[in-house]
TrEMBL record:
Protein name: Polysaccharide chain length determinant N-terminal domain-containing protein
Compartments where found: Cell membrane
Location (main, coarse): membrane
Membrane topology: Multi-pass membrane protein
Protein transport keyword on record: no
Domain Polysaccharide chain length determinant N-terminal stretches: 2-86
Transmembrane segments: 14-32, 466-490
Keyword terms: Cell membrane, Membrane, Transmembrane, Transmembrane helix
Entry GO terms, CC: plasma membrane
Keyword Transmembrane helix set for record: yes
Domain of life of the source: Bacteria
One Gene Ontology term of the molecular function aspect: protein tyrosine kinase activity
Length: 714
């Protein structure tokens, strides 16, 4: 649809588009005339997002875009939750019930009297604790739980001021830009109710949020305490298992003991090697020294003789001492002294001989060799015994190493279990400490704070009556205009020449207005003459003016298309040019539209295929300039394609006020394939707007302003 068509369509329905919005505006005005005044109060809550911290992360703040949005969504849902609003509504009801007299700052006279209708005096006396809001609120809550169908439940469900669903509808929560502030707004028709409802909602919200946080923290503490007991038991079991293992295998320090065994083994091997070297040297020295002991028997006899001589000397000395005591033993003393001297000389001789036999070939005295042999012999025996002991010690160390080596893996596993259990225990203990810290923090400070307290609205909100009236008027106007445009697109009729050409695939030779809808300002005769001339000019292109008569066939595919009406107007135009016309029409044509010039025929007989020559004879013998043959509705009668091909032009008369469905399009496609004569469309009953697109400007009386506006649009 072009802009020009749009404007024409809207102008055509101008009064409808104007009257509907006016009626709607008047209706909205009277409906909104008695709307109650609206009051609004607001409060700003600081959400303190840093309070949402982890329990076991040292209190580190985890705050990003998604976390922040999630936090504000949770706060919004909590504030608008049914439980929060119910608590606030019950507290508001308790405040109103303890009022003995109306007070405009708390409860107006109208609301006071209305509340009496719902809460009678008996129930009021049971619920109210004079001058005590909290106890009254507690009694109302208990009464509601004990009596679910009490009047209090009705108030919470249906009342405009106490109804939970009604309060939630008027409660709005929004984040202030990208800050940590949350604005809470409430609207209602009473200033006092507006103020106290919002006040109680914010209080209930902060209490519930703090309770939720404390409950979460208590659950965290209980969880950590349970886990701490489990971790402590696991740690103790692991430590006991490690202790039993070390006790059973007598392990003081595995690594030091293992190091000691390794060092002891190394030292033992070194000692064994050293003993073997000493033993080897000792055996060689003993072999040499034992070679010196070949004259041992001779030396032994000398020694024995010396020993016997010494004994004799001793006995002689005893006799000498006894002779000295006697007075007459001088001779005996001399004799004994001489014998003693002889014996001493003998000893000296034997000693010299013994000395000579005691010196080795290497210059070593035999006595010294004997001592050395004795030492070496002792050393040899010691080393032999030492090697035996070392072998036993070596086997003992090897057995200890074989026994001690596999214990390392098991000890490592037990130590690892202890380490893991200890780390888990310390981690859980840290989390428990952080949970206790958070608990103390929540007890000392509140996570939310009221930055702006709810205020008592002194003035109502600006009235929306004008907005509703204007909005209703423009909305209904736009809706009406949209319906007009929608109905235009949904209209199945042919309407325009372009649409007719699109549906039929044929060129439109001319059009005719729907004269029933023509305004009085249209110059009908001038318009008719112009339309007939336009159709004639298109038609003349296909006529052979060198021969007469010109056979023109008019047909349609539906009843009421207006063939006879158009043909009669065309005949008038031809006769005005001093030309003659022969006109045949079916006898089914209504008598009211038939003229004296029309020659009827029976379409059920005369249009059969065998009647073509008869028609050709009629055309040749008519003696007229034009021969018009009007065919009936070809959707109801047989089509004589041979007869139609005899014509110079076939004219499909189509009504713009009728639809042209697919069935008729298919029938037309068959006709187009069957005939070879030129084929045109004459579009009847067009609106003046659509006719102007085909013909041009419709001749009618116009004001200068209308002509100027039309020139701008065109």
């Amino acid at each position: 649809m072009s802009l020009k068509q749009m404007i024409r369509l809207l102008l055509k329905n101008f009064w409808l588009i104007i009257l509907v919005p006016l009626v709607v505006a008047v209706g909205v005005y009277f409906l909104a005339k008695n709307l109650p005044m609206r009051f609004e109060s607001s409060a700003i809550v600081f959400t303190n997002p840093t309070s949402d911290r982890g329990v076991n992360d040292g209190g580190a703040i985890r705050m990003d875009f998604y976390t922040s949005n999630n936090l504000f969504d949770n706060l919004t849902l909590l504030l608008r939750s049914r439980e929060t609003v119910t608590q606030a509504s019950l507290r508001l009801l308790a405040l109103h019930l303890i009022q003995k007299q109306p007070d405009e700052e708390v409860l107006s006279m109208e609301n006071f009297e209305e509340l009496k209708k719902h809460i009678d005096d008996d129930l009021r006396s049971k619920l109210v604790v004079p001058n005590d809001l909290n106890k009254t609120h507690l009694r109302i809550s208990e009464h509601l739980q004990a009596n679910p169908s009490s009047p209090v439940e009705y108030l919470l469900r249906e009342h405009p001021h106490y109804g939970v669903s009604n309060i939630i509808k008027e409660l709005f929560v929004a984040r202030k830009a990208s800050s940590d502030m949350m604005e809470v707004t409430y609207r209602t028709d009473d200033a006092a109710n507006c103020y106290y409802t919002l006040k109680f909602i914010t209080e209930a919200f902060m209490e519930r949020y703090s309770g939720i946080k404390e409950a979460e923290n208590i659950n965290s503490i209980l969880y950590f305490e349970d886990q701490l007991r489990i971790a402590q038991m696991k740690l103790r079991n692991a430590e006991a298992e490690l202790k039993d293992f070390m006790t059973e295998h007598r392990i003081l320090n595995y690594y030091e003991q293992g190091k000691y065994l390794d060092i002891a083994k190394l030292e033992h091997e070194q000692d064994e090697e050293r003993s073997r070297r000493i033993l080897s040297g000792t055996m060689a020295n003993l072999a040499k020294i034992e070679g010196l002991f070949d004259g041992f028997d001779q030396r032994q006899s000398i020694i024995n003789e010396i020993s016997e001589t010494q004994k004799e000397i001793v006995s002689k000395q005893l006799e000498l001492e006894g002779a000295q005591l006697s007075r007459n033993g001088q001779d005996l003393r001399q004799q004994l002294t001489g014998e003693i001297n002889q014996l001493q000389k003998k000893i000296e001789e034997k000693s010299t001989l013994l000395f000579n036999n005691s010196i080795s070939l290497e210059g070593l005295q035999r006595r010294e060799a004997l001592d050395e042999w004795l030492k070496l012999k002792l050393t040899y025996e010691e080393q032999v015994q030492a090697l035996d002991v070392m072998q036993e010690r070596k086997q003992y160390l090897q057995d200890k190493i074989d026994e001690f080596a596999p214990l390392g893996a098991e000890l490592k596993r037990l130590e690892r279990e202890v380490s893991v259990s200890e780390s888990q225990y310390l981690s859980i203990l840290h989390g428990l400490n952080m949970a206790y810290l958070k608990k103390y923090d929540l007890e000392m400070t509140s996570p939310q704070k009221l930055i702006d307290e709810p205020f008592f609205p002194k003035k109502p909100l600006p009235s929306k009556k004008l907005f509703l009236v204007v909005g209703g008027m423009f909305g209904s106007g736009f809706f009406t205009a949209s319906l007009v445009v929608l109905f235009f697109f949904l209209d199945p009729t042919v309407k325009s020449a372009k649409h007719a050409e699109k549906l039929t695939g044929l060129k439109v030779a001319g059009g005719w207005a729907n004269e029933k809808l023509l305004p009085r300002s249209v110059m009908k005769e001038t318009m008719r003459n112009q339309l007939i001339t336009q159709f004639r000019n298109h038609l003349n292109r296909f006529l052979d003016h060198s021969s007469k008569p010109h056979l023109i066939v008019f047909y349609s595919l539906s009843d009421g298309s207006g063939k006879t009406f158009l043909i009669n107007h065309y005949i008038e135009k031809i006769r005005s040019l001093n030309q003659t016309v022969t006109y045949y029409s079916p006898d089914t044509t209504p008598a009211t539209t038939r003229t004296n010039e029309q020659q009827p025929y029976d379409p059920s007989v005369d249009l059969l295929a065998g009647q073509t020559q008869r028609w050709k004879s009629r055309v040749d013998n008519c003696g007229s300039d034009y021969f018009f043959l009007e065919l009936p509705n070809l959707s109801e009668f047989d089509a004589n394609y041979e007869l139609m091909n005899l014509s110079e032009t076939c004219i499909l008369v189509l009504s713009a006020a009728q639809s042209f469905p697919e069935g008729k399009q298919t029938a037309l496609a068959v006709i187009r394939e069957a005939i070879t004569s030129p084929h045109l469309v004459w579009l009847n009953r067009m609106t003046t707007d659509e006719l102007e697109d085909l013909h041009g400007e419709i001749p009618k009386k116009r004001t200068k302003i209308r002509r100027w506006a039309k020139s701008l649009i065109s």
